[in-house]
Each structure stands twice: as structure tokens, then as C-alpha cells.
Amino acid sequence: MSREKIMNLPKAFLILCLLIFVGTETHAERLKDLAGIRGVRENQLIGYGLVVGLDGSGDQTTQTPFTVQSIISMMQQLGITLPPATSLQLKNVAAVMVTASLPAFAQPGQALDVTVSSIGNAKSLSGGTLVMTPLKGADNQVYAMAQGNVVVGGAGAAIAGSKAQINHLSVGLISAGATVERAVPSSIANGDTIQLELKTSDFSTATRVVSALNQRFGADTASALDGRVIKVRAPKDSDTRVSFIGDLENLDVTPAQTAAKVIINARTGSIVMNQAVTLDSCAVAHGNLQVIINTENKVSQPNALAGGQTETTQNADIQIKKEPGLVTLVKPGANLAEVVKALNSIGATPQDLLVILQAMKASGALHADLEII
Questions:
Q1: Which residues touch 43 (CB under 8 Å, ≥6 apart)?
Q2: What are the structural domains, with CATH classification, of the chain?
């Protein structure tokens, strides 16, 4: 297809993305990349607060009454009582939600980064200051206090009356803006066992992890409870246990090969495959497109005295026809990547790809899980 024709195609045609990992060999990975330890996790914190000191870009109080109520409540806590009939017209204040992640083993006095997001109609939080805001966990307990100057990562420019803006000015960050006030109890030091949780459930990978642990640390060290959880015997002494977990996390394990999968983004036309996906013989007709895949098995058998092995190979004849053109590919083995490439070369739309792959999956010719996002 010429460059001119490519440039004239709709944008959706040009966003076809193929990430193909060809080959079935898997490599060893560190155990810390495959699994986590139960009880070692982050906890989400949230709080409601006020950002003050804005340059007229705060909430319009006539449309956000909760901002006025928050100001009155804060004034009362500071010992200032406003007359009942007072009507506040504030432009330099914005109501915000403050969020943070409390890492595992965080101790009182530790600093955390917080994100400040406007919940009203403030135009910008740039230059504002977050006043002291308690951050609570899921149990409604206060675990940190946040306060500080908000930094907004936005940029603006005006040229000949037009304006350009990058990023959202209603979201900002306060680096080290919160201080931990309460530690989350951890159960990792209790008992004589710890539990590993695989990030992806897989019985084969769980079996390989158990074998690697028992080979490294001795028999009966680890046992699989199911396809995700693995129980591991660990030393009771805290210092020895930390050293043991460090060695455990750096243990190399070869994970089992994952199932073949094809992910399609129907909006952009992107296609992602986690490995080479094979296809059986099939024929699909869609509109003025015809897709025909013929797979021929060829058996190579040596003579009785050769001492070799019988080998089977596949030759795939992929024909994709669109009037008046014809695309023919002959490759060793029917590969989905070749089908998609050929369809894209004749200008098939993302919707065409989606319908054709769905039809192949429904007929059983596509040997992969098909996920549409």
C-alpha cells in the first residue's frame, strides 16, 4: 500500500499494535516477581480537606455549598464564630479529596506523598496550601495527617488570543505531605509459617515454586494449599526470618507457560498476543472480505535403520481476498499474526478484525482465549 493511501486511511486503521512473543520457552524469574507475602501490602488512605490561598481560581461557593460549610466548621474549631446571617463569597478556597498509600511496615513519623484532587468547580489548585487533613483507612481510623503546599504539574500558554493547556490543573501533589500517626499491625512475625500468594493463579507454577523451595531450603519447607497460596515454614526469630525471606524472594523459579490469549481493543483496533497463536483450517466470509486458511500436515519419517525421529510439520496457505485484490501467504504453520497483518494490508477496519476473530473463535479454529476490551 502506498504512503498516500496509508495517510488517507481513517485513524482507527493505523493504530493496529501487535505485541507477539514467539516461542514457547520461558525463563526463570525471581520469586518476588511471581508472588507476594500475605500481610505485606499497602493500605489506601483518604481524607476530605480544604486548599486555601488560591488566586481567585477556587470553588464558586454558590454552586458548592459544602465548601462554605467546611470553612464555617474550620473557623469554629479555631475559636472564630461567624454571625448567622453572614454570606461568604469565597474565591480562594477549594474543597478537595486527599489520597495516599500507606506502605507495609510504615511507622509513626514516616513521611508519605499525597495526591490532592478538587471535588468542586475550582479552576486550578496551583499555588494553594492544603490545611491539616486527617487521612483515614477502611476501618475509619486516622493513620496520617496531611498538610503542605500543592504542586500542580500543568502548563499553559496564550498565543494571539488562543490558549493551550497541558495536564489537569485541578489535581496536585504534595511530596512528603503527610506524616504517619499510626502503624498497621502486621502478622508476618507471628507463628512459624508464612504464606506466599502467586500474583496469577496457576497450579503448575505453584508446584514449581514448592519444588524450588524444598530443594533450596530442605524437604517439607513448602506445601501448596491451592493454585495461588503456598505455605512456607519460616524461622521464629525475627532477624533470622527477615534474612530467610530475603533469600526466598531472590530464588529463581521458572513459571509455567501461560495460556494463549488474544486481547482486542475494539475502539483503537489494537491487537495484543502473548505468544504465537495457531489456527486450524477454516473459511470466513465477512462483507466483501474472504479469509481462507488451509493447514496441511506433512510427516517426515526416517527409515528403520536411520535412528531418527518422526517429525510433523505444518504448511499454512492463508488467502485473504477483497475485490479485486488477492493476498496469499505461504508460511510454515498457520499464525494469527500473519492473518492480521494480511487483513490490515488490504485496509480491513478494526471492526472487520473483531468480527473475523470472533467467528474463528466460535468455530474452534482459533486456539486462544479471546478478550475484547
A1: 101, 102, 137, 138, 143, 184
A2: 3-24+259-302+309-372 (no CATH), 29-40+187-253 (3.30.200), 43-180 (no CATH)
